[in-house]
Here is the input.
Amino acid sequence: MAGRSQTAPEAGNDMGNEDAIGGNVSKYTVLPSGYCGQPKKGHLIFDACFESGNLGRVDQVSEFEYDLFIRPDTCNPRFRVWFNFTVENVKESQRVIFNIVNFSKTKSLYRDGMAPMVKSTSRPKWQRLPPKNVYYYRCPDHRKNYVMSFAFCFDREEDIYQFAYCYPYTYTRFQHYLDSLQKRNMDYFFREQLGQSVQQRQLDLLTITSPAGRWSW
Here is the structure.
């Protein structure tokens, strides 16, 4: 699937509406307006179809700038904070500006020096972007939503880059951690299934005992 920057929505096309956000983008290639042919290096490919991924839409503003729209929480459509996506097919030394344009929070730690996380194929350890490259502000061009913009320079063409709001901690990782605790057969640790979530995920009841008492979370 390929995308192109759009200056004005066509009749019957809801892509000009900020509410037009469906599922996560899946290997979404952004092509320059008017370009025909196969994608070249530097035509960025966005993906968020993985566990904890969140990126619903990408609009190319200019050669270097992209507006990114995040999907709301499953059970709270007014809450939009988390993002986690990958970018590939980059050119060495390619500079970009990414604008997360539909945050729902009026206050954010991004105003106090927090910065998004980034890692890549050859550098799998999460790192924070330099705070000087991150800006959080209210934007009149996007219904006065709060926007977080950050600048980035890709330096390795073969790498896939991943960006996230903060350190991701997935449900699968948590389940693996609980599995490892359960296998240790500790007398003071007991795990049982309490039920299932709306999305059919297991809800665990953990009981930890001690001589002084018993607590459950």
